[in-house]
Every structure is written in structure tokens, then in C-alpha cells.
Amino acid sequence: MEPRRKRLPLVVNVATKTELEKIAKQRTQKHARVFRAKILLSYIAGKRISDIARDMNTTRPLVERCIDKAFGYGIMDALNDLPRSGRKPILTDDAKAWVINLACTAPKDLGYAAETWTYSLLVKHILQHAEANGHNCLMRMSKGSLTRILNQANLHLHKVSY
């Protein structure tokens, strides 16, 4: 029978341990952060991984991932979620720049009777002319998407300054 793999002990200083204890007792922190702090405190105290999993009413792989994260990234970073890749942005920077350019252009210059853009009119214009200008990603533009793009550029159609 081959010997069991033994993990190294997690060495922490007194300040880090007191910080972990403080986080483990807090009720205003995220539950996952408090849970991971309790797991790490149990491991630092010398408990076996199976015992920690049983006491915390969770699975052994979850406890192992938490401990491995502490070894890999550091104890305090192990309390947080790792960044995820996420979905790639649909709107290109060129398309956003084109929308911002349109918002800065007066509607009269494009043949409309209005002196200022409304969100509805600008969305309608974008949907009609996006494909012709090579911005297929804007074919599903909504008022909410337009508002988000303009807010990032600090443009407000409803505020006119003279």
C-alpha cells in the first residue's frame, strides 16, 4: 500500500491569523469569504482535510481547493473568488466610437427636424445605418445599451448646455 500524500502545514503569522479569526466571526462579509476563512483556520489548527469537510458540512475537494489556493495565491487572496474569463464584449470599440460621434452630431445635419437627439430617435437612426457603416454588432441596439455607451463617454442627451 502506497503512503498517503501529506500536505505541508500552512504557516501564518499572528496578524494574519487574527485577521482570519475576525473575518470568520463577521456577519457582514460574503458567506463564501467567511466559509473559506473558517476552513483555513481549521487547517492551520492542524485538523485533517476530511475532518474539516465533515465539520463544515461540505466536500473534501472544496476544502482542498481552498487550501491549494492559499498555498498558490496567499492566505488573504484565497478568501476571494478568482477572476473569471467572462463573455467577450459584443460591441467593438469602433462601433462605440461611431455611436458617440453620432450623438455629438446635430440631428439637423443628418436630415432630421429635431434640434437635439432623443434616445428613441438616436436608436432608430443607429439601427437603420449601422449595417451600412460596417457595424453589424449594433443591429440589436436598445435604449439601455445606448445609455450605457453614452454614460461611459459622459454624454447626456437630455442635458443641453448653451
Helix and strand topology:
Layout: H1 14-25, H2 31-44, H3 49-56, H4 60-73, H5 93-104, H6 119-129, H7 143-152
Order of helices and strands: HHHHHHH
Number of domains: 2
For the residues shown, what is the average pLDDT?
A: 90
Low-confidence stretches: none
How many angstroms does the end-to-end distance come to? 85 Å
Helix content: 40-55%
Q: Helix/strand-derived class?
A: mainly alpha
Describe this structure in words.
- This protein is mainly α.
- It folds into 2 domains: 14-79; 93-152.
- 50% of the residues lie in helices and 0% in strands.
- The chain has helices spanning 14-25, 31-44, 49-56, 60-73, 93-104, 119-129, 143-152.
- The mean pLDDT is 90.
Task: Summarize it.
With about 160 residues, the protein is mainly alpha-helical. The chain has 7 helices and no strands. The protein starts with 13 loop residues before the first helix and ends in a 10-residue tail after the last helix.
For this entry, give a set of tags.
2 domains; 50% helix; 162 residues; mainly alpha; single chain
